[in-house]
Every structure is written in C-alpha cells, then in structure tokens.
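Hello,

Following up on my earlier ticket. Below are the two sequence lines again, exactly as submitted.
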Amino acid sequence: MKKIFLVPLLSNLFWLSANAAENEDATKALKEARVLFEKAVANQGGWQSTIKLLKNAELSLKKGKSADALSLARKAKQEAQLSLAQTQRERNNWSEPEYLK
Amino acid sequence: MNKHQLVLSLLILTVATPCAWADPDSDLKKYQAFFTQRFPEFNSDDFANGMYNFSKDKRSQYEDIMQFPPYIEALEEGEALFNSKFQNGKSYADCFPNKGIGIAQTYPKFDEKRGKVVTLEAAINHCRTNNGEKPLKYLKGNLVKIAAYMSDTSRGKPIQITVPKDARAIAAYEEGKRIYFSRRGPREFACYHCHWQTSGQRIRGNELSPAIGQAANFPVYRSKWGELGSIQRRYKGCMKNVGSVPLKEQSDAMNNLQYFHTFLSNGVALNAPNSRF
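Thanks for your patience. The regenerated structure is below:
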C-alpha cells in the first residue's frame, strides 16, 4: 500500500525539481539574452524579432511554462548574439557598394 | 618620446584623421553622378518626385491629391504656432536668422558651439527651452507642423547642407555615411540596398525612390500616417521594415544619418511639406 503512494510522490518531487531547474535555466538565459540585446541596441543594432522572443519568453516564464520559456530565451540569446556580431562587423567593415568604387 | 609627446601625437592623430580620409564634396560628386547616369532623363526636380517618377498611375493620383494638399490644415496650424508668442513675449522668429523664414534648406546643420549636428526640429525645441517653454515631441504633432511651415517658406530653394572643415563635423558626416551603408536587421539590409542600384524598381507594390531628392519632401503627409511626420519618423519606419531596432529620434547617430542623407540631396529644390502614399 505504501508503494502506491510513494511512487507518485517521488515522481511529483522529481517533476517539481526538474521544473525548478528548467525555470532557473530559463531565467538565466533570459537575463543573458536581455543583456546581449541591450548591448546590441546600445551599439546601434538589435533586431525587432528579438523583442518579441524576449516578451514571449517572459510571458511563458510567468505562466510557469518553463520549457517554452527556456527555448524562447535561448532563441532570443542566439539572435541577440547575431545582431551584436552584425553591428560590430558593420562598424569595422562597412563599405560603399562595389558599383560606387 | 616622452609621455606628454606621445599623448599629444595621439591627440593630433585623432583630430586630424577624419580630415585626411573624408571628403564630402568629392563623395557628393560621385554619388550624384551615380544617379544622373542611372536616370539621365531626370532633372533635379524630378529626383524630388521620388517614386512618382516610376508609376504614371501613382503620379496621376498624387497630382489629384495635390489639388487640395492634405497637409494644408496642419501647415496653417504650423504658421499660427510659429507666429505665437512665448510667455516671455518672444517668438520663434527671435531664435533664427532671417526670422526663421527661408532657412529650412540649410538644415540639418553642424552647430560649432554644440559640436554636433542640429536638426530643424531640434533647433525649434532649443528655441522653446531657451525661452522657458517645454520641448515638444519630435516625430509628429505641433513641432512637425512648425517645421512644415518653416520648410514651406523655403519651398523652391535648393538644399544646401554644408560640412565645415571641422574634424567634429567630418566625424558626424562619416558616422552618418557609415550608418547609411551599414547592414541592419536579420535580412542584412542597408539603406542603399533599396534606394541606389534598385531605385526605380519595385518592392512588392511600391516603386523605390532614388536616395537623391528624398529629403526634399520632409516633413511629409503620408496617407499611411494620416498626418504630417518628420523625416526621422520615416527613418524609424524603414528601420523597422528591415527588422532592425530603430535608432532613437534626435540621437547623435540619427541626426548624423539625417545629415549625410540630406547632404546627398544638395542642389535639389526643397518641396516640403509634401504628400506621399
């Protein structure tokens, strides 16, 4: 009889701890993404789509959908990295088009 | 070489470098030559007509609209605002050379005292704050109406943006040029991608206007906006269209972009305010 109660209890505990870890990961990824995005904007860059990803990640986090939040935050972080790389690349390597040279 | 000499040399190098590698006048010759070769049938005024050069249908609609220009009411409001007195008894006319009449074609201009580019809208707000009034919002509304009235008094005068031989002015021009030719957003678009080699072609339902002459029409009444808006409002729209976060209005970067972009239209007669779809 005890086993009948123990199995769902352990399973719930496992789920809760996994969810908490995912939540923590999502919060961390979201924070990192936001820092990178703000850095890109401060450097005259940044993409509109990242704003949407950040908002949706935050919303998912509030709703307790940690897995979705983590996935969106990772995408936002990746985009923010790309936009920052773009603005740094353009700052040092922009050029007039070939047909003007 | 001691420390002081090293610092001095570095300072001289920093100040002198922009002068050494930037020549706005030869840039202008090269850029305008590109467009006059691309559109040999255009005269200077045609460039100001932008997209209406490429679609008879839209040109005809534009001419119909201009029978009763949609910005007329805003223009009259702008004139009344311009002529109204501040609480201290002074007015906008007291802040500008020639009482603010017929000077819009020289903006944006490099302000040596401030060491930066100043747009007409910013100059209007400086006038307000210097006279104890609150600044107005930059992208639309009363400020743009006043700018529209001042531009109307310059209608027909060729755009005359100068880049003085001042390292700070050259640096501002160069920053504007860099932003103009830099790719932005996930689609990697720069301003020139749409308005240079592909000008005159279509992007979905719209014909792309050449870079030269665009600035001659602002402030502009856009049907999409249903009101007058400043050129920086349009820049922000373009930047969003290519998926990038727009630069902040009246930031140094945005003003420098406007400086470079308006400089491209030097010689084209101001035709502002105007109407666009």
